[in-house]
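dumping this here before i forget
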Amino acid sequence: MNIGLTGGIACGKSTVSSMLVEKGAALVDADRIAREVVLPGEPALKQIVDRFGQAVLLEDGSLNRKQLGSIVFADDESRKDLEAILHPTIRARMKEQMAAYEREIPDRLVVVDVPLLYESKLQELFQAVLVVYVPEEVQLKRLMERDGILEKDAMNRIKSQMPIEEKKKKADLYIDNSGSMEQTKQQVDLFWQKYVIGKQLPSRKGKHS
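structure:
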């Protein structure tokens, strides 16, 4: 049994994933995998160097993320090339980890935390997608407070992703994280009782049987 967990920046995805892990879920973290696949010795790092040159490496042979970012964010073609290197590798590693957890304890819920799940069109990997939701004005306020940034900069980051209202519409299930921590926990408890213990995950929207 698995779900894809996603949301917008500063919506509280990590909070919800932590609550699910506390209840016994296994976690596959796409951000962590993305960092692992570019470590020294990994094939993806060699492909990145072959495409972008030695300038994207630090002296110790690790990836210079700042330098690579300055290249790919300034040029769509470069960004697409980087995605073509990384996305298949990350997706394969995610599938490996999901399969390993499902073999280990077949009845355990596997939560796969993917920030850009819908943007990367990964929903077909999961039985259902759970979105962590807060209205955009709450998202903006929390992002400004969390990162200590101006409203303009926070809004630019929010606008770089699919709107949270659209993600909510696409979701098979959602948890509203705009209230108190206790209110979020109550929703997580209800989700666990109904869908994990009750084993009644809804079918993914748009999924053909």
